[in-house]
Hints:
This protein is α/β, with parallel strands linked by helices. The chain is 38% helix and 20% strand. It folds into 2 domains: 4-83 and 201-264, Periplasmic binding protein-like II (D-Maltodextrin-Binding Protein, domain 2), CATH 3.40.190; 87-196, Periplasmic binding protein-like II (D-Maltodextrin-Binding Protein, domain 2, 3-Layer(aba) Sandwich). The protein has helices spanning 14-28, 41-49, 60-69, 116-128, 154-164, 175-183, 213-223, 230-238, 249-253, 256-264, and strands spanning 4-9, 33-38, 55-58, 74-79, 87-92, 107-110, 138-141, 170-174, 191-196, 204-207, 244-246. The strands form 2 sheets. It has a 6-stranded mixed beta sheet with strand order 2-1-3-10-4-11, with helices on both faces. A 5-stranded mixed beta sheet has the order 7-6-8-5-9. α1 (14-28) runs antiparallel to α8 (230-238).
Amino acid sequence: MATLMVGVVAYDPKVVLIWEIIRDYAKEKKFDLDYVLFSNYETQVQALLDKKVDLAWNTNVAWLRTKKRAPFAEALLMRDTDVDFTSMFIAHEDANIHTLEDLKNKCVGFGSYDSAQAFILPAYYLKEQGLEPNRDYTMNRVDSDLGKHGDTGRSEYDVLEKLKNNEYDAIALATSTWMRMIEMGLTSPSLRPFYKSKGYSHCNFTNITPNASYTNEFIEFMLGMDKERSDITKMMEMEALSKWVRTGDYELHGYDELEKAMEWLNLF
Length: 268
């Protein structure tokens, strides 16, 4: 088999460390794998479509954009933490905001426009409750690190600061980001989540070559990683997973609502 090339977006310096570990482990297991770094998901998606890489480690937004242009694309593998991913709305405890409907006539802060967790889905949840942006509530967005699809989380930290400074009545965040903020001591006792979404799917390894022999080999290689090894443990900690999981029907349905939200926002 020729070298399997995997596209990866370098949203953080740790991405190189993660993929150096994976590549070294693959070499040890005699699996010929290498990676290509991209600065943003739009370029990575195009490289996959042009077959400059064999697989792409995509966000949910990048996956749906790939699927739109290549209907035969398949999602192979995910982190366990990519399954039933959730978002939250946060407000001050004394704001008398308890439901999404309470955001009517309020000022709501969102993250980057290409972030499923901090903008696309939260805005869609409000729409589903009959709340249209800049008609029923004031939409404010912080477009930090565009092209990274929210991977850096920077826009979520930015909107948190604005909420703390009372510039917004409420904000939308990924639940995982909120938990990380708590661990880092960045939240305030006056802030509380008042809404948590149902689960949806996040990242996956995307393939666009039907019946490619390397797909099963890649899946088996990733699933077979020895989690007892210190290097693999370190990689999994940096990549925020406990195990890799196959993408099945349940996980694929986890993209359905996001697809509707992206259609509504004209993000294809």
